[in-house]
Amino acid sequence: MDYIAFLEHVQAGKMLESGSEIFTYMSKISTKAQRICAEINGKYHEQNELISLLSELTGQEIDQSVSIFPPFSSDFGRNLHIDKNVFINAGVRIQDTGGVWIDEGALIGHNVVLATLNHDLEPSRRQNLIPAPIHIGKNVWIGSNATVLQGVTVGENSVVAAGAVVTKDVPANSIVGGVPAKLIKKI
């Protein structure tokens, strides 16, 4: 198993079966992500050091315009894609195994959760994981304590109200809020 094969598997939305080769590979990469996140959160770092650690976590060059306030966690790291001028506030938890794209200018509030995995509903298969990507559009603002679930795209310039649980796509230039999140108004 290698990274390309893993990405092809999750991008196709195929199940990650507990105990399989691909599940073991995911766990191995997750261990590396835990180490890097522990370094991010374990002591004070200047922003340029945090960007270097984010680059190591994602395996991609993260632009110096990105700003992050620890603590921060990512369960996989290698399927997290962060564009320029993104702000990630304290306590953000990103489950990026299924893929997370955060476009330019996005603001991610305190304690936001981005979750790209779900479990099979059948109890005998509940340990299996079902991936689906999250896409946060350009200039999106996600308020504190919001949760964005697997398979959701938040359209550009939109706002997700604090505490919202986003289970469906958010149209561009919209404000959503509530549990589950519903359209409040267009911007």
TrEMBL record:
Key words, A-Z: Repeat, Transferase
Record Pfam families: Hexapep_2
GO-annotated molecular function: O-acyltransferase activity
Family of the protein in this entry: Belongs to the transferase hexapeptide repeat family.
PANTHER family, per database record: ACETYLTRANSFERASE C18B11.09C-RELATED, SIALIC ACID SYNTHASE-RELATED
Protein name in UniProt: Sugar O-acetyltransferase
Lineage, opening ranks: Bacteria, Bacillati, Bacillota, Bacilli, Lactobacillales
